[in-house]
Each structure stands twice: as structure tokens, then as C-alpha cells.
């Protein structure tokens, strides 16, 4: 159901999702359980994935049957020193899809940029986003493969995961346990 494809030697700590989730997209971790079942990517020890300021400290992801959800934990103090930046959710599958979220770390505000699939995003303590599988053109049983890039003034400054992509399969009517055991 969910995997990380590695394309480089750099290491990341990766944990796949353990169940469906449907977080409240308000930019806050509204409860301990909100993202508990989500997958997680963190920079591993010795993984020099960043150049300069580190803006994202962890990436969470998960889904329900309709929507792919992402949460980026941001180091707001460090991010603010570098000025505004974009978070780009770049999809390898479906090819060419990009959701671009403009982030102003000074005011902790975000804006989904036009031109990509519709998405919802909010920021406060963290940044949370949701993208409907239908808006990506991903049907039940098909995979969405993506990575999160941090760009500033058109240049890539961070990549999550640092060493590949994340793959998730759009679930059907089966339970999460059924998908994993299949």
C-alpha cells in the first residue's frame, strides 16, 4: 500500500501509515491521535539533505478513501530567517501534477497557488494539506507517487523524502488491514 522508493544513498527514517486517517486541516495537531496512524519521514542521522536553513523537520502522510493528506512540521524560526518559500508536492504518478503552496513564515499563512490540482492547506503550528484523489486523476487501486520539495526563489532547497519518493495506493472498500494482508 505504501512504500518509499530510494534513489540516492542519503538516509531517512521512514514509517508507513498503519491505518486510514482524516485529520482536521487547520494547521494544528488537534489531538494526539489525529496523525498517529499516518506515515512519517524524518531526516536520518548523517543525511545531509539540506543546504542552508532547514525549514521542514518531519513529513507526515496518510489517506482516507477519498483524500491524500500531508503534514509538514516546520521550524518556523529557522524558516522565517530565509523569507517566504514554496512547498511543492510533486507527483511522479500521476505524471506532471504539482500542488504548490506559498508559505509566509513571518505571518504563518499559506496559499495554494493556481495551476495545479485543487487542494486545501492551512498553517499555524504545522502545515496541513489535503488533495482529493479524484482531482489528481487517481482511481481506486492506482498509486500516487510523490515527494515534497521546498523551493525558494525558484531553487530547490530541501526534498522530502531526501532519498526518493513516497508511494500510496488509493484504497477501495477494503479495510486498511485487508490491504496490508493482501
In short:
By secondary structure, the protein is mainly β. 9% of the residues lie in helices and 45% in strands.
Strand content: over 45%
Q: Determine the number of helices (DSSP H or I, runs of at least 4 residues).
A: 3
Computed structural class? mainly beta
Task: Give me the oligomer status.
Answer: single chain
Counted beta strands: 13
Share of helix, binned: under 10%
Which radius of gyration do the C-alpha atoms yield? 15 Å
Head-to-tail CA distance between termini: 10 Å
Largest sheet: 7 strands, antiparallel
- The overall pLDDT average reads 86
- Residue windows where pLDDT falls under 50 for at least 5 positions: 6-10, 45-50
Give the overall shape, derived from the CA principal axes.
globular
Return the string of H and E elements: EEEEEHEEEEEHEEEH
Notes on the protein architecture:
The chain has 182 residues and is mainly beta. The chain contains three helices and 13 strands, in the order E-E-E-E-E-H-E-E-E-E-E-H-E-E-E-H. The protein has helices spanning 76-82, 133-136, 176-181; strands spanning 2-6, 12-15, 39-43, 56-63, 67-74, 85-93, 98-104, 109-112, 120-123, 127-132, 143-152, 155-160, 164-169. Strands 1, 6, 7, 8, 11, 12 and 13 form a seven-stranded antiparallel beta sheet that branches. The longest helix is centred in the middle third of the chain and has 7 residues, at 76-82. The model is unreliable at 6-10 and 45-50 (pLDDT under 50).
